[in-house]
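Shift notes (night). Ran Sterol uptake control protein 2 while the centrifuge was going.
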Amino acid sequence: MHHFSTSAYLTLIDHSSLHQFWQVTVPAIAFSFDFLLHGILAFSALHLAHLRPNETDEWTILSRRHQSVAVTSFSSRLNDITNENVDPCLLYSCFVFMLETYSITTSSTAVLPRDISRSFILLQGVKGILSTAPGRWSSDGVLAPLLRRAVEPVFIPSKGFKAQIEALREIALPSEVTLICRNALDGLLTTFEAIAAPRSSYAYVWLWAITLPQAFLEFVSEHEPFALVLLAHYATLVRCFEHDRWYIQGWSARVLVAVQDALLESWKPWLEWPVQCIQSGLDVRKME
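Came back to this:
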């Protein structure tokens, strides 16, 4: 816990106003809920594995032990989420997603589209937890500091990413996937505008992933071409934040390779733009 409160917590902050929240409030909550405590310790151990390459195996093993304890404890709470434990449950779910994301970036085996879908399903567990206490968590809960900086509506001039979205709209799709994939396309644009808005936050980049319907995630797992192309374009948004988030560094590249390996040859020309952005490390928010 010392490492978290002196070092690892800093990697979760993108606004100075959140220092107190992550350094003090979250650890204080964790000491009353063992699943969150072990989730934090698992995250901290992986951060040490990242910082100390010569000790990677040691810290990774320790992280897995903490994850195992946390999962066992958390599983017993899933059917009994109350006003008293909704905040730690939500925080733990966030740590689980970060750990899963890191596992994708560091996997020694090929990452498959279904692995990406599975990680998004974990993130969507946050929605289920929030639904148990509608309204409370955003107003007077201890997590309120995370939500006080709403994205301000702003007109964003036409840019490279938006041009790509409009080009994708012109693709003719099979009737059975049209509605779901068109909605996912709209969601990509919404997420882009969120991360490009003034006073935005890193967390907004996951808006697309957390709002995708189960049917779209199944399309990704089944290698539906248009769904995979959208996933590759989404990876360009995440790429914007990889430089200062150790647990997602390389995520976009792994996702892109997964898409390239699964996509039909006839669809691969649609990957040229995301390939250029990701391999060149371009920030699509700043592209004209």
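Residues 160-286 form one domain. The CA atoms of residues 243 and 249 lie 7 Å apart.
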